[in-house]
């Protein structure tokens, strides 16, 4: 991790961009915020796609994350209305059920030590179970308990999906670096039995819900499967994701794509719908689990920050004892800063990628990027560059309080930027905030001697374990 970061910083120092070869193919690394803005936002119509990642697995190739051009635009336009504030608010009770399960899991650990300070606990395991339960709950409307029922077929198959065995990594790298070989041998990054399991499982749920409609007893659910079924029925229009941002810089950074006349068919087939629910599992599990675990790691390492956060939360809950939990989403500014600073130091996705659909001259550089060649934006290195953040290796949430913000918005990219940014950003923020509010109110987290070991698999940060001790406040 550090070696990659240091190499990027060393090569990039004093330059707007630099190039490397990946198995003979040129890849351009961009670190200049203005050039990043050109690629992600201003010339998005040319940089709509990431690198070609064709897997021959119909479920994977239909996902919004891998779809291309007009196909991507259609999927994104149908899906973005399912992430509006109102819809996420309806999901809050589903997520809070998973928070309760997480609290029970931690209580059991503390009870083993008669309520005293716990032995070191791998919090990544706990937050991993939470993130998995949330994503299964919000995607498919099924309540599972990942730690208590590890043999539940949903959990078993979801775990298999995230296997990082040598074999799965070799398959992934072949698709990335030698797509023709992958195409010839029909290599898929996933075990086909696993994708078949989720397909059958989702089809049963869809049938149940359609039957409910026909028999006049529709299922009243706020999960994505239902929202996508409803949005197909209502032929929803896209919402502008920027409408909830009051400052123009964030509005530009997170503006959603709008439907256009060339998008005749806005409905999703059953197969497309299932692919999106499985994608939520893939995109939403590891990233959210790691971010929440790293928030706890940071506050354990900085007891003053933990105390300040506790005071903010208790003040809010005392003043608004009957407050809607969703309000915490907006009210707790210091908590926002803790999460933002955690995502700066530990962005779950360590880089972004785009590939132009035509030859493209990079403004002011004299460099032409050829069609389909990869542009790599090294998020992790950009977040730790002293030109972008003072004392970049120091955990200091205060730098994200609105009165202190000094960085260019395109030097902070944990959820990407432009119309192809993270579709689940608001859900991820909600899930992390609801968990943090509850955890910091109930428990105190303590650092251990064990050094943090960060790994990376397929561009996603994976701490090996995040060992903390825990005691209960009440
Ligand atoms: C802390 C948690 C998360 C982080 C840090 C994160 C980060 C990211 C990043 C960096 C990207 C690439 C953006 C770009 O290329 O500009 C991305 C894409 C995406 N994320 Fe997330 N993500 C998180 C959670 C989630 C969740 C919970 C979901 C859904 C349930 C989700 C769904 C997606 C999807 C569908 C895409 C592809 C969007 C597209 O290609 O149009 N993410 N995410």
Automatic annotation (TrEMBL):
The keyword Oxidoreductase applies. CDD domains: CYP3A-like. Its cofactor is heme. PROSITE patterns: CYTOCHROME_P450. It holds the Pfam family p450. It is a peripheral membrane protein. One of its GO terms (cellular component) is endoplasmic reticulum membrane. Keywords: Endoplasmic reticulum, Heme, Iron, Membrane, Metal-binding, Microsome, Monooxygenase, Oxidoreductase. GO terms for molecular function: heme binding; iron ion binding; oxidoreductase activity, acting on paired donors, with incorporation or reduction of molecular oxygen; steroid hydroxylase activity. Gene3D superfamilies: Cytochrome P450 (1.10.630.10). It is found in: Endoplasmic reticulum membrane; Microsome membrane. Heme binds at residue 422. InterPro entries: Cyt_P450, Cyt_P450_CS, Cyt_P450_E_grp-I, Cyt_P450_sf, Cytochrome_P450_3A. Belongs to the cytochrome P450 family. Cytochromes P450 are a group of heme-thiolate monooxygenases. They oxidize a variety of structurally unrelated compounds, including steroids, fatty acids, and xenobiotics. PANTHER family: CYTOCHROME P450 FAMILY 3 (PTHR24302), FATTY-ACID PEROXYGENASE (PTHR24302:SF15). This is Cytochrome P450. It comes from Oppiella nova.
């Amino acid at each position: 991790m550090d070696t990659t970061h240091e190499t990027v910083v060393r090569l990039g120092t004093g330059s707007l961009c630099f190039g490397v070869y990946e198995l003979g193919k040129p890849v351009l690394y961009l670190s200049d915020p203005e050039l990043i803005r050109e690629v992600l936002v201003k010339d998005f119509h040319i940089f709509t796609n990431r690198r070609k990642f064709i897997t021959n697995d119909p479920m994977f190739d239909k996902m919004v994350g891998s779809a291309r051009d007009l196909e991507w635009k259609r999927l994104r336009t149908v899906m973005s209305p399912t992430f509006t504030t109102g819809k996420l608010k309806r999901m809050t009770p589903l997520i809070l059920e998973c928070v309760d399960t997480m609290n029970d899991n931690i209580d059991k650990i503390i009870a083993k030590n008669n309520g005293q300070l716990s032995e070191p606990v791998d919090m990544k395991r706990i937050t991993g179970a939470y993130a998995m339960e949330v994503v299964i709950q919000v995607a498919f409307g099924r309540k599972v308990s990942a730690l208590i029922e590890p043999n539940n077929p949903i959990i078993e198959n979801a775990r298999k999906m995230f296997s990082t065995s040598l074999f799965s990594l070799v398959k992934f790298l072949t698709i990335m670096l030698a797509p023709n070989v992958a195409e010839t041998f029909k290599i898929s990054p996933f075990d086909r039995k696993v994708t078949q399991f989720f397909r059958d499982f989702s089809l049963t749920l869809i049938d149940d819900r359609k039957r409910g409609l026909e028999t006049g007893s529709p299922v009243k659910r706020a999960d994505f499967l239902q929202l996508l079924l409803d949005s197909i029925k209502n032929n929803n229009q896209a919402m502008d994701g920027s409408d909830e941002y009051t400052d123009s810089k964030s509005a530009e950074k997170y503006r959603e794509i709008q439907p256009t006349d060339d998008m005749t068919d806005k409905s999703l087939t059953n197969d497309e719908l299932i692919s999106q629910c499985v994608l939520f599992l893939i995109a939403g599990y590891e990233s959210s689990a790691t971010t929440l675990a790293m928030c706890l790691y940071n506050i354990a390492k900085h007891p003053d920050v933990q105390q300040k956060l506790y005071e903010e939360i208790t003040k809010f809950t005392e003043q608004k004892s009957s407050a809607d939990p969703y309000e915490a989403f907006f009210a707790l500014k210091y908590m926002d800063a803790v999460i933002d600073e955690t995502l700066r130091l530990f962005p779950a996705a360590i880089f972004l990628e785009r590939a132009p659909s035509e030859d493209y001259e990079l403004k002011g550089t004299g460099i032409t990027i050829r069609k389909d060649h990869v542009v790599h934006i090294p998020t992790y290195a950009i977040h730790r560059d002293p030109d972008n953040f003072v004392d970049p290796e120091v955990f200091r949430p205060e730098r994200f309080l609105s009165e202190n913000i000094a960085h260019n918005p395109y030097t902070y990219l944990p959820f990407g930027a432009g119309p192809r940014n993270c579709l689940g950003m608001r859900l991820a923020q909600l899930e992390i905030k609801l968990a943090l509010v509850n955890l910091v109110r109930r428990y105190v987290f303590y650092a251990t001697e064990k050094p943090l070991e960060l790994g990376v698999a397929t561009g996603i940060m994976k701490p090996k374990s995040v060992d903390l001790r825990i005691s209960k406040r009440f």
